[in-house]
Amino acid sequence: MVSKNQNIAPSPYVLFPGNAREALTFYSEIFGCQLFLHTFSEFERTDGPANAIAHGGLVDGPVKLYGADTAVGQASVKMEGMMLTLLGVAEPMTLHQWFNQLSVSGTIIEPLQHRAWSATDGQVVDQFGLCWLVGYED
């Protein structure tokens, strides 16, 4: 049984193609989250490079995201038909800032813009291949 005060929601766990440390550090800096990283050697894993990330994530911040480097035989993330949403999770100024930071070395699919349905939103694929939908109600 789940407590009524407990927030249950899926959290993305991304398998990166050898750049998990860089990606998770990038996201922790944008969102102001604390970062934790554990290497394959720390977990006594031999199915990848010793300094590869076996498990990492963002904590104590507005975004919950976990990730690791791929192990031998695993496929890395390829986002199609899915977006990570940041809809109304912060003040509009903060959301604009996050959108701009996620756009660095990424691809803006749709700029942040006012929509006919009285909302502002936009889409960006960041430099690590994650697609983000960022927006808020006007």
Folded structure, characterized:
The chain is α/β, with parallel strands linked by helices. It folds into 2 domains: 13-69, 2,3-Dihydroxybiphenyl 1,2-Dioxygenase, domain 1, CATH 3.10.180; 84-137, 2,3-Dihydroxybiphenyl 1,2-Dioxygenase, domain 1, CATH 3.10.180.10. The protein contains 2 helices and 8 strands, in the order E-H-E-E-E-E-H-E-E-E. It has helices spanning 20-31, 92-103; strands at residues 13-16, 34-39, 53-59, 66-69, 84-87, 107-114, 119-125, 131-137. The strands form 2 sheets. It has a 4-stranded mixed β-sheet, with helices on one face. A 4-stranded mixed β-sheet has the order 5-8-7-6, with helices on one face. This is VOC family protein. InterPro entries: Glyas_Bleomycin-R_OHBP_Dase (IPR029068), Glyas_Fos-R_dOase_dom (IPR004360). Pfam families: Glyoxalase. Residues 13-131 form the Glyoxalase/fosfomycin resistance/dioxygenase domain.
Strand segment count: 8
CATH topology of the largest domain: 2,3-Dihydroxybiphenyl 1,2-Dioxygenase, domain 1
Strand content: 25-35%
Determine and state the CATH class of the largest domain.
Alpha Beta
Query: Ends: how far apart?
Result: 37 Å
InterPro entries: Glyas_Bleomycin-R_OHBP_Dase, Glyas_Fos-R_dOase_dom
Domain Glyoxalase/fosfomycin resistance/dioxygenase: 13-131
Protein name: VOC family protein
Pfam families: Glyoxalase
